Amino acid sequence: MRGAFLVIVLFFFGMGQSVVKAAEVKPKVKYRIAVCDWMILKRQKLGAFSLAKELNADGIELDMGSLGPRETFDSKLGDPVERQKFLDKSKELGVGISSIAMSGFYAQSFATRETVTKMIQDCVDTMDKMNVKIAFLPLGTQCDLVKNPELRPTIIKKLQWAGKQVGKIGGVIAIETSLDATQEKQLLEEIGSKYIKSSFNFANAIENGRDICEEIKILGKKYLAQIHASNTDKVWLEKDTAIDMPKVKATLDAMHWKGWLIIERSRDVAIVRDVKANYGANVAYLKKIFQNK
After folding, report:
1. pLDDT below 70 — which residues of the chain?
2. Residue 9 C-alpha from the chain's centroid
3. What is 76-95 written as a DSSP string?
């Protein structure tokens, strides 16, 4: 009996310790703020992490590298040694990786490039090896579905294939299109893959006279993978009258959404090349609104 009593005491003592440890763990931040490595002039450079740390950002959107006429991205991340340097630096500085970006598709055609399957697979492999769950895929100027609706069947077919590949690692490819939220939601429904979602960009909504909060609500939590929370270059976010940021937060709160808010632009055109001033101000403003800092 004495032995049994001792076991029970030790069991409950262990539970007590577990409770104390759990209570000491800081709650996760609902909204995290990142910057695009190519926009802070550190495309696929280790220095992006230290600069993001200096800017007080929580993470970076890490680009796969330029495309040009190459078969695939000009990426260091396929090299295990180089890739580990990025992972080590991320851990050392406590700066996360929000997503892996395929920014080359801003100018290149996802619909017609012959080696798109290799490009997508290289990105998915990088996500897998770096434990990043979101890839950013802009359907840029050549795949503008408003101007080139005839590309829709091809794009859908390729995204269905891409969804299967990224689904194997439990990841998501977040697409940015020129469509309004209703049309983009229809596109995602037609693709029919839970692994293909939306990367919502404030600038696209503003440029086309759409209400940011209404667009977000139409897409809904189910289809919203990440947000590029900035406008085109003109003024800093805190001075931009086109964006009611507290209302955006209230909209996302009501949806119970959580995830990465990524700053792409919103630079002051008078000091457009001053990375620290522009992104420091924008990070600080988003943290004030979304993290009460």
Report:
1. 1-27
2. 48
3. STTSHHHHHHHHHHHHHHT-
